Amino acid sequence: MRSARTVDEALAILRDETRTPVAGATDVYVALNFGTFAPRSFLDIWSLDDLRLIWTHGDTLVIGALATYTELIQSHIVGERVPMLVEASRQVGGVQIQNRGTLGGNIANGSPAADGVPVLSACDAVVVLRSVDGERRVSINEFYTGYRKTVMKPDELITAIEIPPVKGKQWFRKVGTRAAQAISKIVMAAVRAPSPRISLGSVAPTVVRVPRTEAALAAGASIEEAAEILGGEIAPIDDVRSTADYRRRVSQNLLRRFWTETG
Ligand SMILES: Cc1cc2nc3c(=O)[nH]c(=O)nc-3n(C[C@H](O)[C@H](O)[C@H](O)COP(=O)(O)OP(=O)(O)OC[C@H]3O[C@@H](n4cnc5c(N)ncnc54)[C@H](O)[C@@H]3O)c2cc1C
């Protein structure tokens, strides 16, 4: 494994060599352990401290890709602006995982069950990607193209996540087998605004927004009508963690709770 001391050095290595970046390694180690990664070379980016900063630029909150869950939990500015991201971070794994797992890794890993991604999706966050050729910004809601597939190129790093001001009450709920160390069966993040924004994990091949449900609520539909629409809008599957039917019903219940608790 090579390691990089600066972002520019990391990007030059990714241009010249085929290497998989490793941040906190909490997903990478699991993949290696289960043999789901083909043999490959790695690039350790953990020590790129410039990518760990959390700051504001105008009214945009900028979170470095290497910010860990612990750093998100401890950040006053994140707590003020996106309390549901703090809530989600508290529910990721246990303390050890929170100390190593990064927000950039959660996004790049591409799991439909990722807890950070629905929060970013409901916030209309933007993923900042950088390569030696320059920087580009992609909405988190256009970042995934399929199950664990993203628009990211092999020579790009996620350097930051930009979150515009979030207007409206924020709500996050994760339903898993137990409170800690459990991958979610369903996760929902939502913002109660005149045009509500609702994002779900574990109900489709990627984390998804539910535009038909959002539009119905914005137009004044009852929560029961919206729950009915949600049931038809998501496409959960049966797997080792749960069944499609359970996931659909829990999603509808979470929608009802979001609506009553933020009303
Ligand atoms: C016991 C355990 C419990 C867990 N619990 C949860 C949970 O409750 N909720 C949850 O969402 N996740 C959970 N996870 C998964 C994992 O901890 C998170 O997804 C974490 O955010 C991954 O970050 P990382 O820095 O460790 O990523 P890594 O393992 O370092 O990388 C993951 C992937 O992202 C890529 N990558 C990482 N950083 C970048 C970057 N800056 N630019 C481009 N590509 C990058 C890597 O190449 C790799 O493909 C758990 C994992 C374990 C082992």
Structural summary, described in words:
It is a single chain. With 263 residues, this protein is of the alpha+beta class. The protein has 11 helices and 14 strands. It has helices at 7-16, 28-34, 69-74, 76-81, 83-90, 95-100, 103-109, 116-122, 211-218, 223-233, 244-262; strands at residues 2-3, 20-22, 42-44, 54-57, 60-64, 126-131, 134-139, 144-146, 149-150, 157-163, 169-175, 186-192, 197-201, 208-209. A 5-stranded antiparallel β-sheet has the order 4-5-10-6-7. It has a 4-stranded antiparallel β-sheet with strand order 11-12-13-14, sandwiched between helices. It has a 3-stranded parallel β-sheet with strand order 1-3-2, covered by helices on one side. The protein starts with a strand and ends with a helix. The relative contact order is 0.12. Flavin-adenine dinucleotide (FAD) binds at residues 20-28, 30, 65, 92-93, 97, 100-102, 104-106, 108-109, 114-116, 157-158, 181, 183. Flavin-adenine dinucleotide binds next to β2, α2, α6, α7 and β10.
Question: Can I get a quick summary?
Answer:
It contains 11 helices and 14 strands. By secondary structure, it is of the alpha+beta class.
